[in-house]
Amino acid sequence: MPKAKRSRNHSAAGGDARGATSAPYSLASRNNTTSSSKSSSTSAAASSSAASSNLIAPNTSLGQHFLKNPAVVTAIVAKAAIQPTDTILEIGPGTGNMTIPLLQQSKHVIAIEYDTRMIREVLKRVENTNEERKLQIIQGDAIKTKFPFFDVCVANVPYQISSALVFKLLSHRPMFRCAVMMFQEEFALRLTARPGEALYCRLSVNTQLLAKVDQLMKVGRNNFRPPPKVESRVVRIELRNPPPPVNFTEWDGMIRLLFNRKNKTLRSVLLTKPTIKMLDENMKTQRALNGHNNNNMEDGEDDKTSEQIIEEVVSMDQWKDKRASKLDLDDFLALLAEFNKRGVHFA
Ligand SMILES: C[S@@+](CC[C@H](N)C(=O)[O-])C[C@H]1O[C@@H](n2cnc3c(N)ncnc32)[C@H](O)[C@@H]1O
């Protein structure tokens, strides 16, 4: 998987600035032409310029490791199960190795690419083909760009933006059908890691709370040009619909705290001075917002400090000596409900 530094150095991109704004590119609009004037073109023409695209010097600081094995491209696109009516969002099309088959199978592809050299290459590959009118390219940083409506997302992106991209997709609305994404192997395995596994982390629980993730295939480093240092994997992400009935800010506040030291007991993570101070402040704010005698709180709870409440909760048989690294989603949901019921809030 691409392992580049997520550089803010715009000149390193070999293109225009990675600005906060993003700009749409489209050959159809640029040339002011319509698809009907391209009727003699074929899909084969789109693929034929693949060889020339391979001459572009990859900028590895932008994670430019291009998929060079057509069988892998075909397999990834097949896993996306694209319908002819679909709008596809492709993040980081690079020289267009996946963009071309995506265009051939869908109604519309919107690609977000940071490097203008890549954009020119993709546009060149579709010029005068049947696919040209179906492609829209937005130049910019995918993390800063507002995503358009889409049915399916396909992406092979640098490792540095993987986490931000997953979180962006998890909160994207309206819900999309699925995202088929290539990641560095370890990152992909974190997404599906289970309690007790070494890679189980905040990313695992947040992702699994909001989505179903399937490991689809392993992709060896030699399928890329240039080969990255590590192996890659392709996963499918499907958002849970409806989403779980939990306040995500509250949830993530607790998960972040517990996974800071996931192998320590809940007691030793939560009963530290800075944590108690923070939870006391949250409690004061909540009490002020709700009125001191909060009807949702159990009798007598509103006189206790957060330290007392934490002490009581982590002493319960259910939570005694438990560590985040071994708890599953249901455990975390029950723990959060217990704290919230007693007036302890993490947001
Ligand atoms: C690993 S290459 C993949 C290229 C192509 N999809 C393929 O599989 O051959 C990643 C692509 O993402 C682009 N990229 C890197 N950071 C980006 C960002 N923040 N936003 C949008 N595109 C980015 C790179 O310029 C590069 O073209």
Descriptive overview:
- S-adenosyl-L-methionine binds at residues 65, 67, 92, 113, 141, 156.
- Residues 1-43, 286-305 are annotated as: Disordered.
- InterPro entries: KsgA/Erm (IPR001737), rRNA_Ade_Mease_Trfase_CS (IPR020596), rRNA_Ade_methylase_Trfase_N (IPR020598), rRNA_adenine_dimethylase (IPR011530), SAM-dependent_MTases_sf (IPR029063).
- Belongs to the class I-like SAM-binding methyltransferase superfamily. rRNA adenine N(6)-methyltransferase family.
- 37% of the residues lie in helices and 15% in strands.
- The chain is α/β, with parallel strands linked by helices.
- Helix 5 links the parallel strand 3 and strand 4.
- The chain is elongated and about 75 Å long.
- S-adenosylmethionine (SAM) is lined by residues 2, 62-67, 91-94, 97-98, 112-115, 118, 141-143, 156-158, 161.
- S-adenosylmethionine is lined by residues 2, 62-67, 91-94, 97-98, 112-115, 118, 141-143, 156-158, 161.
